[in-house]
Amino acid sequence: MGKFVSWVQKTVTSLVDPEKDSRQERLIAVIRRELAAKKRDFVLREAVSGISCSALELQTAKESVFRDALGRAWQDDVLTGGEINSLKWIAEALQLPLSKASEMNLFLAQERFARMLAAAMEDGHLDDGELKRLSHIAKAAGAGLPAFARRFFRSQGEAFLRGIFHAAIADGYISPEEWNNFVVAATHLGISHEEMLTVVQPQATMFVERVLADAKADGVMDDGEAAILDWLLTSLRLSEDVASYVRSEMEVLKRLTAIGRGDLPVVALPPGLALKSGEILHYHGPSIWRNTRHLKSGTRVDDHRGYLSLTDHRILFTSDTKSQSFAFRKVVNYRISYDRLDVQLQGKPATTFLFNGDRFAAAIFDSAIALANRQLVPQQEGASSRHIPHDVRNRVFQRDGGHCVECGAVDYLEYDHIIPHSKGGSNSDANIQLLCRRCNLKKSDKI
Fold first, then answer.
1. Per the domain annotation, does 270 fall within a domain?
2. Are the beta carbons of 282 and 266 closer than 8 angstroms?
């Protein structure tokens, strides 16, 4: 609406007084010429005596002439004592209020300050020479560097600081040295550590979520990834909720990593469950056995609620309605996803076990059967890796904006194969998307 009103006012003005623009330009040219010719003998009233103009037109012309003088003085990003005195005299000659001249000078100083600071921070570090040049700009605006920087950041610097931080993490990584340079630079500019952390909090939170999603992409957390996340949580001081969530996810991933290596938990035998001599129980928890039968009358699906047990040799399911045991050696094919296990047995239709949100049961089964078959990581010969390369994850995260493509969530993010890897889906950008765990689970239920 504001732009529309401005357009209407400008249009009406040009219709009522079509010569206004040319008269304004002529007025500016006369004042500039007289000021240059007469210098200290310049008198504003005499310079414009033969020109018919309104008070607003005259004020606009005076500001335009002073702005030109400011621009020439600021060309080298430094105002000398002589230039400061000349600008003061020009403002007085033009009868510009001191407050208006200071405001115009401050605006230009902030513009120069932002440009120089952006160039200086390209390498993430402020050296002595860059600090000196920034101090000159601050001094020309009538303040010391810390005071000017604080004034600058109050007006526009928060967005600028976020921009610098965003540029630093654009490649999905920030080193301790880069972060330290960032902190030191903020300190030189009069921005306290606490203020700086508050300003970049939104970007920092999204960045840590991105690093966590990277770590979860291959289902393995190595020592390096854990160390980086620990350092980020300590350095960025995220909110307690975010830090608690990240640490919880890290613990889950560490457990899954250990399970993937074959380090399986040993569970105490629950009452009523009988095992063979020497058999080791690795998992016992509530489950649903979805038994599919193909009858002459059609396909029948029965859900039996009970308990699933995984040992070093077999799968056991016990419930009030159905109990069964399957030896690992009879499993000819299987597929696991989060809290679901689909098993194909010799001579029998596929059967499904649901784990009620347990994230470890399927991983335990995967390693247990691999250990039983003397293959810790069972893969079909020539099968491609499920691992999504870092550069692909980086591009996908940027493409999807760090949000779940289904619901827009920014937490519990995971990289998902649009066409499942088990069905031939590739690790290319086009086949990878960001989903939160909730949407990923919904998708898994439909596959």
1. no
2. yes
What are the strands, taking DSSP E only, across 54-171? Answer: none
User: CATH code at 421?
Assistant: 3.40.1800.10
Digit-coded pLDDT (tens) for 5-24: 444 344 334 434 455 567 77
CA 279 remoteness from chain centre: 48
- pLDDT range class, residue 116, cuts 50, 70, 90: confident
Please give the tally of structural domains in the chain: 5
β-strand partners of 436: 413
The SS3 assignment for 326 reads strand
List, in order, residues 6 or more apart from 223 with CB less than 8 Å away.
Answer: none
Lowest average pLDDT, out of 191-195, 221-225, 420-424, goes to 420-424
Higher pLDDT pick, 288 / 120? 288
Three-class DSSP category at 334: strand
Kindly indicate the confidence band of residue 153, based on its pLDDT and cuts at 50, 70 and 90: low
Read off the tokens for 186: 């903020």
Could you tell me the residue range of the domain that residue 396 belongs to? 390-446
Q: Of the residues 338, 372, 406, which one is the last residue of a structural domain?
A: 372
CA 198 to CA 192: how far, in whole Å?
A: 10
Report the distance separating Cα 2 and Cα 424, nearest Å.
Answer: 55
User: Quick one: the chain helix, strand, coil %, rounded to 5?
Assistant: 55, 15, 30
Instruction: Please say if the pLDDT value at position 336 is more than 70.
Output: yes
pTM for the full model? Answer: 0.62
Q: Which residues contact 13 (CB under 8 A, 6 or more apart)?
A: 20
- Res 118: pLDDT: 67
Q: How many CB atoms lie within 10 A of CB 229?
A: 21
- Amino acid identity of residue 416, one-letter, is D
Which among 440, 442, 444, 381 has a CA at the least distance from the CA of 414? 440
Cβ distance 411 to 437 under 8 Å? Answer: no
